[in-house]
Amino acid sequence: MQIEDNMIVTFDYRLTDDDGLEIDSSEGRDPLAYLHGSDAIVAGLERALTGKSAGDSFEVRILPEDAYGERDDDLEQEVPREQFAAMESLEEGMEFEVETDDGPMIITIVEVGEEVVTVDGNHDLAGVALTFAVTVREVRQATPEELEHGHAHGPGGHEH
Length: 160
Ligand code: ZN
Fold this sequence. Notes:
CATH class of the largest domain: Alpha Beta
Mean pLDDT: 94
Bound molecules: zinc ion
Number of helices: 2
Shape: elongated
């Protein structure tokens, strides 16, 4: 059975950047399960999985435009420190959700100065080329319930 839209795909993966550093991996936990064609995983990986079958292993390098997008320097901004007065501590690398005109957004603190705090609204992996080493474990038709929900059920998917 080859992977196409409306199938549930279960796969193991190891994700590295161009320096070979591991960003994420399914090792030691359940393989990831998702509904193919539902945009549940990055576009480049979904495309690479199309047509593959259970047991297939492959490696694919995905450019930012097909993953988490290019960095947008306008999303890095300096904010007066007093706007963070309610927070007990401020440290580089802290992430939190803020409301913007475009909806909720995760921002990361990149620098804490005396007067201003530099925040970055880019995704952690924006501008990063992603290399996935993938092994497809299982391919099956989605159940009517999964299609209705728009996601995979069971181990590696939604448990509910
Ligand atoms: Zn569901």
